[in-house]
Target: Small-conductance mechanosensitive ion channel
Amino acid sequence: MAFEAFGDILYGSFQNLWGGVIEFIPKFIVAFIIFVLGWLVAVSLGKIVAQILGMLKLDKIFENLGFEGPITRAGFKLDVGGFIGGLVKWFFIVVFLIAAVDVLGLEQVNLFLRDVVAYLPNVIVASFILVIAAVVADTMRRIVVGSAKAAHLPSSELLGGITKWAIWIFAILAAMYQLGIAGPFVQTLFTGFIAALSIALGLSFGLGGKDAAARFLAKLGSDISNGRK
Model:
């Protein structure tokens, strides 16, 4: 009697397991087909977008605007079509993957992938911030170095380097904040960086320019005295 009951339980367990496998196989096949088709569509769309942007000569436009030099010196390659095409490709891959996972009924994975799709705009904005920073940092470095040399100030390259890296640090902190990476910590770090930079600039101008300020005040006093006479 006990063996018969045990056999019934074992039989029921295997029957449920086999029924689950039979029910899962069609879903898996459909999900696999959706993902493969989605992958092909995503790759094709990415290439099409990259080719269209290449035909529009966007790289040439950015080169004429002076983006190529700073971006190359920053360690990146100027390929607007490839970058946007890659974003389009991975966006559609994740979208079709969400559809495939939805067919399988994996709700937690589905929610995670939806969060990934919702996060993509932050990645785009952060990338844009870094690209703009590469151009602005290089341009400001050249301006500071040129101005310092024109004013016959020592350490013009050092001043240019400080300007460049100050902009880069600012941009990296802004990109991290946009990505939501340790938001309160980045905000505190950013505030501390601005405070330290302000103090450093104040000290440098205060200590380095005290002689010039004294001469200016003396000249101003002399002009006032001459005006009274």
